[in-house]
Design brief:
The protein is α/β, with parallel strands linked by helices. Helix content is 38%, strand content 15%. The chain has 13 helices and ten strands. The chain has a four-stranded parallel β-sheet, with helices on both faces. It has a four-stranded parallel β-sheet with strand order 6-5-7-8, sandwiched between helices. A two-stranded antiparallel ribbon has the order 9-10. α2 packs parallel to α11. The two termini are 32 Å apart. The relative contact order is 0.14.
Length: 318
């Protein structure tokens, strides 16, 4: 397990195990070029200039994706923590930023008076890993979930259909906690592992579209193709939870790029430094939209620019 140094987290981190479902890649790949040596030398100079940073970026394994995540995140966090030199920093609680589920497990295993911000981990996995923690420990942790906000997804469905639309949602035992995040416009069906999934899908007779939420008991490698085909035959579009899901047959989704998730992480960290308090776990604040135009055409949907351009952009880095 790689841990960036306590004072200046600039070493090559290792990549997270991102979504545990369908090998979904939430991020774009970036090759690691020869510029790394020059960047390393520049970071060494920065190390000498600023001391006492009280944050660490925890990662799970090594890849170009993680380098991109951590490098961008590092640049965003340094201005917030730079004001806290060694003497003052030692009086502050350490803040860990855990990139992905493996890094989150690492953070949870540490016995420390520390604060944790988790990113690139689904709400289901976050809930599973933190549910049994003592309340004081949970209060010192927060997360930005990997999947889109249900409210944004349902707004996208309205834009695609050009009107309010009845949305169906399948929830399993590990995602039932998401019920409060769903509106009255949804038709919720509970699914127990081992049941006939097709029967459950067929029971959603009033739903015009299916909102997919990351649940490994439902949207796994064995079931996804069947779900997409079954809903397609009934003329139900699927609002997916990743760009890759749209590429393989879902109708559309909102999704967040690395820079958008990292901007939100930096905002959470800045709020913590300013107030000493953590905001609660939350869905991505900044996003953009991807639409499978072929599927939309098959469903007789006329895609508008309002749907294509549905987004909430992160502020530019100063």
């Amino acid at each position: 397990m790689a841990i960036l140094p306590r004072r200046m987290p600039h070493q090559r981190p290792r990549a997270p195990a991102l979504a545990p479902l369908l090998a979904i890649a939430f991020l774009l790949l970036l090759s690691a070029g020869g510029a790394h040596a020059a960047q390393h030398a520049e970071r060494e100079r920065e190390r000498e200039e600023a001391q006492g940073f009280r944050f660490q970026i925890l990662t799970g394994d090594d890849s170009a994706v993680t380098h991109r995540i951590a490098d961008d995140l590092y640049k965003r966090l340094v201005p917030t923590f730079a004001a806290f030199r060694t003497e003052l920093a030692q009086k502050r609680r350490m803040l860990y930023v855990a990139i992905g589920p493996t890094a989150l497990r690492d953070a949870l295993s540490r016995r420390c008076d520390c604060v944790v911000i988790s990113a690139y981990t689904s709400s289901q996995v976050w809930r599973t890993l933190t549910a049994r923690l003592p309340k004081p420990r949970r209060m010192a942790m927060t997360a930005i979930y990997a999947e889109p906000a249900p409210n944004d997804q349902m707004r996208l469905a309205e834009l695609l259909y050009g009107r309010p639309v009845r949305v169906g949602v399948l929830l399993g035992p590990d995602t039932a906690f998401l019920k409060p995040a769903l509106t009255d416009a949804t038709e919720i069906q509970m699914y127990t592992p081992g049941e006939d999934l097709n029967h459950t899908l067929n029971s959603m007779t009033r739903a015009e579209t299916l909102l997919a939420l990351p649940d490994s008991d439902i949207y796994n490698a064995e079931n996804v193709r069947n779900i997409l085909l079954s809903t397609y035959r009934r003329k139900q579009g699927v609002i997916g939870f990743s760009a890759d899901m749209v590429k393989v047959g879902a109708l559309a989704t909102t999704y967040s790029e690395i820079e958008e998730i990292n901007a939100q992480v930096a905002e959470l960290a800045a709020d913590f430094v300013r107030t000493g308090e953590l905001d609660p776990p939350q869905f991505p604040r900044y996003f953009r939209t991807i639409i499978n135009e072929g599927v939309a055409s098959s469903l007789d949907l006329r895609v508008t620019d309002a749907a294509r351009n549905f987004a909430r952009r992160a502020p530019a880095v100063q």
